[in-house]
């Protein structure tokens, strides 16, 4: 298990920004990062903030110069960006391209690369993210363990299920929003409701993490329910 000496990102959107910030937060996990100038504002900001970042106008230079290449492209343009690139046999490629099949990626890459797919979330910028990885790979897992934690999926079905479960993020914030509204409608200042609920939910999440695999979530539900209600 090892981290790459130089990792490159093709596509410089919000997810690349989050991953680079997580990898280069002190202490930096990798010595060199290359990013494409696809988003000039993001790439320039990263290069200004982190001396380890090299901005390239040429995606092929990123492929040629990096041990590991992360494909972080919008699915709508993924094929047209990937097909012209010349990857090396055995090169490590991590795809975070959404809604794109493994078979399509391998066809576009057209080389015998070591391909893994991952679903990083924005929290990786603070090294707090949990990332689904498929198929299991020690080096890819090492990257995402630096950025929080990785869950290795043995099958594509497992990977797809975790992708679906991540949709609960919107529901989570929706519950917080509606509850804050209800508290405000009943007389509690909004800032107090927000502060209370954010801390409450953070503590509940921490409890779930610390509970261990032998305690079921439904048992925690019973434990935290108001007795006699």
UniProtKB/TrEMBL annotation:
Q: Which domain of life is it from?
A: Bacteria
Q: Where is the Pyrroline-5-carboxylate reductase catalytic N-terminal domain?
A: 6-98
* Pfam families, per the entry: F420_oxidored
The family annotation for this protein states: Belongs to the pyrroline-5-carboxylate reductase family.
The entry's protein name is Pyrroline-5-carboxylate reductase
Annotated organism of origin? Sinorhizobium psoraleae
């Amino acid at each position: 298990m090892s981290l790459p000496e130089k990792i490159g990102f093709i596509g410089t959107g919000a997810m690349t920004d989050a991953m680079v910030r997580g990898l280069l937060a002190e202490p930096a996990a990798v010595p060199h990062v290359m990013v494409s100038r696809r988003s000039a504002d993001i790439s320039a900001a990263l290069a200004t903030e982190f001396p380890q970042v090299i901005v390239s106008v040429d995606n092929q230079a990123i492929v040629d110069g990096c041990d590991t290449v992360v494909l972080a492209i919008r699915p709508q343009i993924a094929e047209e960006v990937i097909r012209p690139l010349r990857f090396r046999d055995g090169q490590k490629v991590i795809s975070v391209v959404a809604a794109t099949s493994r078979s399509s990626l391998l066809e576009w890459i057209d080389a015998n690369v070591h391909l893994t797919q991952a679903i990083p979330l924005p929290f990786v910028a603070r090294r707090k993210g949990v990332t689904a990885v498929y198929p299991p790979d020690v080096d890819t897992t090492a990257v995402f363990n630096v950025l929080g934690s990785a869950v290795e999926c043995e099958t594509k079905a497992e990977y797809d299920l975790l992708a679906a479960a991540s949709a609960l993020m919107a529901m989570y914030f929706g519950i917080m929003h509606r509850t804050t509204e209800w508290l405000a409608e009943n007389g509690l200042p909004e800032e107090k409701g927000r502060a209370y609920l954010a801390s409450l939910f953070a503590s509940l999440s921490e409890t779930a993490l610390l509970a261990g695999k032998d305690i079921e979530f439904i048992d925690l539900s019973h434990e935290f329910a108001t007795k006699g209600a």
